[in-house]
Fold this protein.
Amino acid sequence: MSGTRFRTLKDFPLEEFLAAGSPMCAGCGGLLALKVFHKALGGKAVFVNAAGCLTLLQVYPYSPLKSSWMYTAFASAPAGAQGIRDALDVLLEKGRISAEEDLKVVAFTGDGAAYDIGLQATSGAIERGLDFYYLVYDNEAYGNTGFQKSSATPYGSATTTTPPTEQNPVGYTGAKKDLFEIWRSHSPPYVATIAPSHIVDMLRKIEKASQFKGPKLFICFSPCPTGWGFDPSETIRVSKLAVECGVWPLKEAVFGEVKHTVVPRFLKPVEEYLSTQERYKHLFHPVRLDEAINKIQKQVYLYWRKAKEAENLDIILSEKMPIKLSR
Amino acid sequence: MREVEMMTGNTAAAWAARLANVDYIPAYPITPQTEIIETLAKWISEGLMKAKLVQLESEHSMLTAAGTASCTGARVFTATSSQGLLYGFEMLYNISGWRAPLVLVNVSRGLAAPITLEPDHNDVLAARDSGFIQLHAETCQDVFDLILLAYRVSEDRRVMLPSLVNMDGFYLSFTREPVRLLDEEDVSSFLPPYQPLNPFRASRPVVKGAAVIGGHIYTYFKHNVHESMVRAGEVFTEVAKTFEKMTGRRIEPVEGYLLDDAEYLIVMTNSFTTIGKRAVMRLREKGVPAGLVKITMLRPFPKKKVVELLRGRKAVAVFDQNLSPGLGGIIYNEVASSLYHERDGPETLLSVVAGLGGKYISLEEFEHIFNLLQHPEGVDLSMPVFLFRRDELTEVRRVLKLAGMQEADAV
């Protein structure tokens, strides 16, 4: 990307907007997303939050943020962003506040709000062309209430409402909703997926989005040590594996045109990613569920095959199933 | 002072918003409210009004945007009805908790099921515990006046709570009545610019709606809202005096009608009060010492004034155009609890449930109630009297028969 101020990790902005000492779980991917996102965005921002884990960043009367925050309700963070944006615009237009007092408005929610209960409000805000950012920390379930299935939950994941049993050994049997495509179908100027393991990619995308007026939408892969069952020190490794195995494609769509921003030369077998987490443990123990694992692998291949054709990507996809990992 | 003009309650509401110089109107259509937002949208697009109107995708989002815009420093107006109010219901509690002093007009309409269009007050009274000031209009003039008063009271630093102004669907919303508007200069001198409390600004980050952990902090905030709400009653009285000086129109939280020597009273709210007054006048002509008390302010509930007006009367009937199934009328219970410590309260306090879904209340029905008040012996005062006429029952049976249905099917 030309003209970026983020070339390598050395360009990571040093200014901090998020202080240490919040009540989030250790290794929280969502918190990391917020920290990095904020650095790229700068300090003049108001985060409009919906119910979720990160709501507990603000426990009265303390705040770890240097910027502003508004908690709305589970279903309506984008509408809350609309009210703030519109009010600032009216006040600017009427000359009641100066341009220096203006703020970037960011809807900031988990996947429960983004994929499920708040999808209608998001659709409305994008359709109206609201000038805002939306950052979703997607940990693929309702984490704050103890890890129940959301429509971001992928096939094969155990959650407390899709427990693997003898009758249903797979766990969740549906498919993860494609929020990227749902958002893209509204034709906003910018949509992207990001991951905390790929910081430079994340910073560049936020920087790039900033030039557009209108909805700028980000889905951040957010490994959740508590819900997914891995050691908090592994967050970045899990995130990296998700990208390398092709489970979490990093991409952007500028005015609808999709481009993958990180393309692995070869895909690692999904097993490498799945086996890092307790939520997939039932796919391997007490018996190996080959059918389910292969189904996940096939879905990943199918996705990348289409992407390769559409964008002429430099990725080598084996037609054969990957060999089993020795363990 | 402007000339009297004929206009609907919806148009009067739109005029109040226009003259209050509101900045922002998040909107969503619903009958019978829609005419309000249509009128405002037209004025804005014609350049007659400097405000931004945004149509949201639901009342829940509409109320969310209304609240956050108010927190950002815009004077906000919005309107809804019935199902819409309930769809956005959780946001009412948020808006009052955010101390966002916006004004919401509710055009009353009975709640589904069965789905209907005409008014009763189960919609607006469902919001009675939400921390909104509630003002209920009898006439289209009231609609206009109460919205202006609502802004002044809500935005007062001693209050900082939102207001809900209620008008009856159809009976006011679509009915043209004489309304005397005010000049822009008068309204702007009555209603100074909104001074928001800690709005979102780049130079001064703020957190709104933060979580609290522990009942003690929660209680602290809720008690603050309660105290402010109680103060809103005092501020209203003070502001209404200023308004009266300017307009000659006196608006009180509770008003009496033909109360001199009245022994038998009915208590009413909203537009049906007008037909209640007509009935009282008729009974006076027949020599019955009848009177009427109208409650305009439902929150804060003006207990003292209600007690003052009911003290020493023989019998009182409270008309509720709402129903809490298994209990009866909502306002009856509030009046009854207000009277608990009054030694000289009325001997008979009758609950009347009437006008549900806009069902008309005829003169004969009022006469029937006054008759019960004069002869309460044998009346079970523990339960409400439902007003429903024999000819209405006959009509229900007629249409059921026409549709080939039995009464047992009508559930």
